[in-house]
Amino acid sequence: MSDPNDYTAGWICAITMEYVAAQEFPDEEHEGPEFVSLNDNNHYILGKVGKHNVVIAVLTDNEHGKSFASVARDMMHSFPNIRFGLMVGIVGRAPGKHDVCIERPQQVGR
């Protein structure tokens, strides 16, 4: 199992489709955490992207009204060394001048 203290980046997805896509980004996947905070009901994927150990979570469909803030709070309680967080998602419009768009090239054999 993975040590929660080893993770420094948090990534929160708003919907399941984004969460499924996010699971393709880690360069290597890690086992689930050894433990999480008592009231943490988030679902996590752990892995490494570049040199960063990353925790990926999603707002669960069955918890209506759960906010990004509560997901982030629970994530930070369970993974106390997170230093930065990202909310990454899909959009239905063309990017504006303040949006950051990143594309990952498709890798053969993955």
UniProtKB/TrEMBL annotation:
Molecular function in Gene Ontology: catalytic activity
One annotated GO biological process: nucleoside metabolic process
Name of the protein: Chromosome 1, complete genome
Source species: Gibberella zeae (strain ATCC MYA-4620 / CBS 123657 / FGSC 9075 / NRRL 31084 / PH-1) (Wheat head blight fungus)
